[in-house]
Amino acid sequence: MTRSISQTNNLMINSKTLLDILEKVNISAFSDKWGPEEVLHVYDPETQLQGILVIDNTIQGPGIGGLVISPTITPFEVFKLARAMTWKCALAEVPFGGAKAAIRADPYQINKLKQIKIFAKKIAPFVPNSYIASPDLNVGESEMKAFVDSIGDLQGATGKPKINGGFPNKYAAVGFGMGTALESALRILHENYHLPKDLSETTVVIQGFGKIGFTISKFLQKRGAKIIAINDLWGTIYNPNGIDIKKIRQYANAQSKESSLMNYKYGKMLEREDIYKIKCDIFIPCANAYAINEKNWFQLETKLILECANNAITSKAEKRLFEQETMVLPDILVNAGSVISSFAEYKKLDPFETISLIERTIRKNSNMILKRSLEYDLIPRDIAQNIAQERILNTLN
After folding, report:
1. CB of 133 within 8 A of CB of 66?
2. What is the pLDDT of residues 361-388, one digit of tens each?
3. What is the secondary structure of 82-145 as a DSSP string?
4. Do 170-385 and 34-83+97-162 have the same topology in CATH?
5. In sequence order, what DSSP letters do the residues of 255-289 get, joined into one string?
6. What are the C-alpha distances in Å from 189 to residues 89, 326, 330?
7. Is 142 exposed, middle or buried (0-12, 13-18, 19+ CB in 10 A)?
8. Which CATH class is domain 34-83+97-162?
9. Angle at which helices 351-376 and 75-92 pack, to 10 degrees?
10. Per-domain residue ranges of the chain
11. Which among 252, 293, 301, 240 has a CA at the least distance from the CA of 276?
């Protein structure tokens, strides 16, 4: 049988489609001189567990990185998150490398603790010498306890409950670090980017109201910032006069529409995606990876983006925003509080000493990166990555 040209074309896979497929399944399609060093796919037939561990780079120490539970996570995303951890740890000058782990599942449809324990046993030969787990999307303290219980080593994870050696008030420390980066940025950028010099004079929009979104919102309200919009999975609340975080704290980390922000009575209810269209001084993505992308970046009316979620913006969108004079403070800079508090837990440091270390580190790096960005007209993420790479190479010398 002879096929027509159109039929033949339908059977062919173009190069872009092939690349998309490789990005989802084949780590070797995006490896480079920095890593990854180890990639482990695991499966359990009884529970249908599908897991992946990517240890990207351990030149400076064991790879540390969150454990994610998501029904859509791909090996490419896990690798990108592991790579971000490599840069983040090097930039923060903590003795860790970069890694990431994930369980591909709907967190609301599985026994999370059971799957965490099975996953931990399967990757146990790499823990803690090559990989140290920490909480991430849909994973918290109880899951980290299950992880270390399964492998029998408290050093196998950070973010554990305080009773099990966890760092007290870790999320407060992380939020403090993010706020420090933001305050430093305003002092440096306010003239060039027409921003207020002080947080108390700013308007803020927060995308995502999970642990990080709630934590940074508390910090901002204490500093007097006006938070005018917040969203979660079920929609957006908007109030140009400001949202009282004390009145909506009960809706943080919602697991259903019935417990979500949609119950807040003192604001206008909008669609979830409308969050991008609200004009503000500062936009803060605290939800999924690549939330700001080629399909929505042009909707943003803001001068400063604080990337609190890991990999919250695509490189193309970030470049376009920078060209239009919107500055992005990258996750590898602003999230340093997470790896520093993990280091504090790992080494059993004093909480007050840890907070001081977070402030010094983030303020120093923020000042260095943003001043170079203004001087050389370069994207802050590129500068931050170059500094991280230099520090990794210095470890080898």
Report:
1. yes
2. 999 999 999 999 999 999 999 999 999 9
3. HHHHHHHHHHHT-S-EEEEEEEES-TTSS-HHHHHHHHHHHHGGGTTTTEEEEE-TT--HHHHH
4. yes
5. SSGGGSGGG--SSEEE-GGGGGGS--SEEEE-SST
6. 25, 11, 15
7. middle
8. alpha beta
9. 100
10. 34-83+97-162, 170-385
11. 301
Tell me the two tokens of residue 243: 């949202």
For the beta carbon of residue 23, count every other beta carbon within 10 angstroms.
Answer: 17
Could you give the angle at the alpha carbon of 113 between the alpha carbons of 37 and 160, nearest 5°? 70
Contact 63, 87 (CB under 8 A): no
Model confidence at 1, in pLDDT bands (50, 70, 90)? Answer: very low
- As a whole number of angstroms, the distance between CA 57 and CA 62 comes to 8
Ramachandran region, residue 5 (left: φ > 0; alpha: ψ -120 to 50; beta: rest): alpha
Q: Is 244 helix (H, G, I), strand (E, B) or coil?
A: coil
Task: Determine the 3-state secondary structure of 14 from DSSP.
Answer: coil
Which token pair is 32? 């480079």
C-alpha dist (Å) from residue 254 to 105, 187, 222: 19, 35, 23
Q: Which fold has domain 170-385?
A: Rossmann fold (3.40.50)
Calpha distance 154→133 (Å, rounded): 11
Can you give the pLDDT at residue 2? 41
C-alpha span between 247 and 312 (Å, rounded): 27
Contact 351, 172 (CB under 8 A): no
